[in-house]
Design goal:
Among the domains are: 105 residues, Chitinase A, domain 3 (Roll); 105 residues, Chitinase A, domain 3 (Roll); 115 residues, no CATH class; 103 residues, OmpA-like domain (60s Ribosomal Protein L30, Chain: A, 2-Layer Sandwich), CATH 3.30.1330.60. 45% of the residues lie in helices and 20% in strands. The protein has 28 helices and 24 strands. The strands form seven sheets. The chain has a four-stranded antiparallel β-sheet with strand order 4-3-6-5, sandwiched between helices. Strands 8-7-10-9 form a four-stranded antiparallel β-sheet. Strand 5 and strand 6 form a beta hairpin. Helix 2 packs across helix 3. The protein starts with 28 loop residues before the first helix and ends with a helix.
Length: 788
């Protein structure tokens, strides 16, 4: 459960969060799309050049496919720059790879794969993705992300007065709102108290209880024009009227402080309605006081949360809430959370509009670095209210490249269709919309985009929303929608014209096209068959059995420890199985003659259940006892209650060792209990427990090793036995339990390698058939020129 801050419904934004066989197979055309976009090293540049003479051809395939030296060399250069230096190839070897790719693409084209509806849809999707780079101002996005990060370092406390006026309001209403804002500002400058004036003038729905004080907030928590003013004003100063889509604001900055970062807490909520009767208020207070008293008496917060909390979303997680920053939660809870300084500490009961809470601090987190937050910040600035600034920058650029010519008569006829139904969001387009051209967008090189009136009608019907502001008219709304529509057509024109305008985009799209076709052909001819053709796999295995043999191998266990003491302790723990962890859970205590699980015992036992579920290799010793005054069967009853609870919640009986001590423990409370000890069947669990908080203080490696696969095993004589030695800052014990002599692998053992090899075999056959069908010719003279 996240408790949203609600200082201002129209200003505050919702809080958002800123963390088989080894088959050699591509992941498809999505991988190529990533590759070609990753290869992009500079912003697009508009180019225009006179028609050039035919370029020299370096490669011809079949009768009608020729590739110029330039396009081949560009591909070679790009892939060399993007590849790992250890995997780079020379130009002649790359020509073979390039030829093979073009052969597969040609085969796809000849089979008509580039004409299918599925192919066109896939290409349209990739084109849309590639186009986004050209339809946004990356420099401005980066500037806004940097600005946002800088603002995250501070929290601002501000008050405001809202004088609402819609963006589509008639000029007279807009002017009246502005004049009222100026008159109100004059009252404040003359010394009238801000809260008093705000309650008289402001239409912010929260003003009656906060006098216009929004509390502390940070970046992204108000709309961008408001945020700009708040961060630019000195403390104590008053802004001029600030226009947003909600109207005019007068903003007074009251304080600034360094960011407090994020905090994560758990809470126990006793829900209380704001309209509760006195008896309900008293009952809620008594219940939260009971919780607080139990906490002070030493009971676990998580257990109490599961028992008492009314927050259904968090109670089963011990009350844990998502991390939050200033302005993302209700103020009272927020302040109490940030007042906690020590992880594990908890607050006294606090009251919010949700009810009563007790909080436990989990951790405090400082603001992450810009490098960590940059991807989320870039996405955020491109989608929040800053996106309008980015849009306007792009429209200014497009307006220089394209000319918009409106058909004035059609425009006026279209705008005249607006009526008051637009205000309710119920406007319907004409039954037979005008097919005439509403506007034309034209650009260089003969580019032209005709936009019919019917497209605008569709746009209005889809984009309209019910409006509640006063002073709106259908004409005002449709005029603003038309202005927005024209801007959208400029974006559409730019997107449609990308291939002509940017050669680089055209080349990227061509590479993606080839990648999609290549992926389809490889899927059909190689990948799918290599996986599904079990008969072919076995035939290939039988014909190449000598390739699939195991060399001599040692079955070994290697223990690395930071010192001799840890190594000795590890050896002791591993001496018997299951392995001792020396880890236990708190005992369950019972009243005399009681065997049933009370709610409190179930809560305590839940922790044991969680531990067993999280650690599937754990084995649990469950030991039950009684005192001398109880019946012999009492300890067995306690044991059965505990085991039944665990097995009914998913713990296998085979993982539980039951021990009934009868009356072996001393008399009294200490004898009436069930105790728990954890063991494990996993050596890795032993290593983790012994390492504690020191990473890799103990590591245990088990495996079957051939020569050259493990340096420690290689140092020993090739025979069974154990040896301990120092290596660097570690002490090591290597135990070789068996030596396996060389032998052939079975098909099942070799299947992964067989599939890889069979895939390569199928691809070679496929390429051989293609080279026979489509003869390949290389212009050696041109290739030699490229080699220089």
């Amino acid at each position: 459960m996240r408790l949203p801050a609600s200082n201002s419904l129209f200003l505050r934004l919702s809080p958002s969060s800123f963390g088989t066989p080894a088959v050699c197979r591509l992941t498809g055309s999505a991988l190529l799309l990533w590759f070609v976009t990753a290869c992009k090293t500079s912003a697009p540049v508009v180019t225009s050049a006179p028609e050039a003479a035919p370029k020299p051809v370096v490669l011809s395939i079949g009768s009608n496919k020729a590739f110029s030296s330039d396009e081949f060399f560009d591909s070679f250069t790009k892939n060399q720059l993007s590849a790992d230096s250890s995997q780079r190839t020379d130009i002649r070897s790359y020509l073979d790879l390039y030829t093979n790719l073009k052969l597969k693409v040609l085969a796809a084209e000849q089979s008509g794969r580039d004409t299918t509806e599925a192919f066109r849809e896939e290409m349209a999707t990739y084109r849309k993705q590639l186009a986004q780079t050209y339809l946004t101002d990356k420099t401005l996005v980066e500037q806004l992300a940097t600005e946002a990060y800088q603002r995250m370092q501070q929290e601002v406390r501000a008050s405001h007065i809202l004088i609402p006026v819609a963006e589509e309001a008639i000029p007279a209403d807009t002017l009246a709102a502005y004049q009222l804002a100026l008159a109100t500002r004059k009252r404040l400058q003359d010394g009238e108290p801000f809260a008093t004036v705000a309650k008289q003038v402001s239409k912010d729905p929260t003003v009656s209880r906060n006098g216009g004080d929004l509390g502390y907030f940070s970046v992204f928590q108000t709309i961008y024009p408001f945020e700009n003013a708040a961060y630019q004003l000195p403390v104590g100063s008053l802004s001029a009227p600030v226009r947003t889509r909600f109207g005019y604001h007068l903003i007074q900055v009251n304080d600034r402080r360094p960011s407090r970062g994020k905090v994560q807490v758990a809470h126990i909520l006793v829900r209380l309605s704001p309209s509760a009767e006195p008896a309900g208020v008293a009952a809620a207070k008594a219940r939260i006081d009971e919780v607080y008293a139990k906490l002070k008496a030493g009971e676990l917060f998580e257990t109490l949360a599961r028992t008492y909390s009314d927050d259904a979303q968090s109670k089963n997680a011990g009350g844990k809430l998502p991390p939050f920053a200033t302005g993302q939660n209700v103020p009272a809870l927020e302040e109490a959370a940030f007042d906690l300084t020590t992880p594990g500490s908890y607050s006294p009961p606090i009251r919010t509009n949700y009810g009563w809470h007790v909080l436990k601090l989990i951790e405090r987190k400082p603001i992450e670095t810009f490098a960590e937050l940059a991807p989320a910040l870039r996405q955020k600035v491109a989608t929040d209210s800053r996106s309008e600034a980015i849009r306007q920058t792009m429209l200014q650029r497009f307006s220089r490249d394209y000319n918009v010519k409106e058909n004035e008569a059609v425009k006026q006829a279209v705008l005249a269709k607006a009526d008051s139904s637009l205000i309710q969001g119920r406007w319907r387009m004409p039954v037979n919309p005008d097919p005439s051209t509403l506007l034309t967008v034209s650009g260089a090189g003969g580019f032209s985009l005709n936009v019919p009136a019917s497209k605008f009608f569709t746009y209005v019907q889809q984009k309209q929303l019910p409006r509640t502001e006063t002073g709106l008219t259908g004409q005002g709304i449709i005029q603003r929608m038309y202005s927005r529509f024209v801007g959208d057509q400029l974006f559409a024109a730019e997107e449609a014209n990308l291939e002509k305008k940017y050669p680089e985009f055209r080349a990227l799209l061509a590479e993606v096209r080839d990648g999609v076709l290549l992926s389809q052909m490889m899927e059909e001819k190689v990948w799918e068959r290599s996986l599904s053709d079990s008969t072919g796999q076995k035939q290939y295995f039988e014909q190449n059995k000598s390739k699939y043999t195991y060399p001599a191998r040692a079955v070994a266990t290697i223990i690395e420890a930071n010192d001799d003491k840890l190594l000795a302790e590890t050896k002791v723990r591993l001496a018997t199985s299951p392995y001792a962890l020396k880890r236990s859970a708190p005992d369950l205590l019972f009243e005399a003659n009681q065997t049933a699980l009370s709610p409190a015992r179930r809560d305590a036992l839940f922790e044991v259940l969680v531990t067993m579920v999280k650690n599937p290799a754990y084995v649990l010793d469950v030991t039950a006892s009684r005192d001398a005054n109880e019946k012999d069967s009492t300890s067995a009853g306690r044991l059965r209650s505990v085991v039944t609870y665990l097995t009914s919640n998913g713990v296998q009986l085979a993982r539980i060792n039951e021990k009934d001590l009868q009356g072996a423990r001393s008399n009294g409370d200490a004898a009436r209990r069930v105790s728990f000890t954890y063991l494990t069947t996993s050596k890795q669990d032993v290593a983790r427990v012994l390492s504690g908080t020191v990473t890799d203080a103990v590591t245990i490696t088990e495996g079957i090793f051939a020569k050259g696969q493990n340096a420690y095993v290689d140092e020993l004589p090739w025979q069974t036995g154990s040896k301990s030695f120092a290596k660097g800052n570690k002490v090591v014990q290597v135990t070789i339990s068996r030596i396996d002599q060389p032998r052939p692998r079975t098909f099942a053992e070799a299947r992964g390698a067989v599939i890889n090899d069979y895939q390569a075999y199928l691809e070679q056959r496929f390429l051989a058939d293609l080279r026979q069908k489509y003869p390949v010719q290389v212009n050696e003279e041109e290739l030699k020129r490229l080699l220089k």
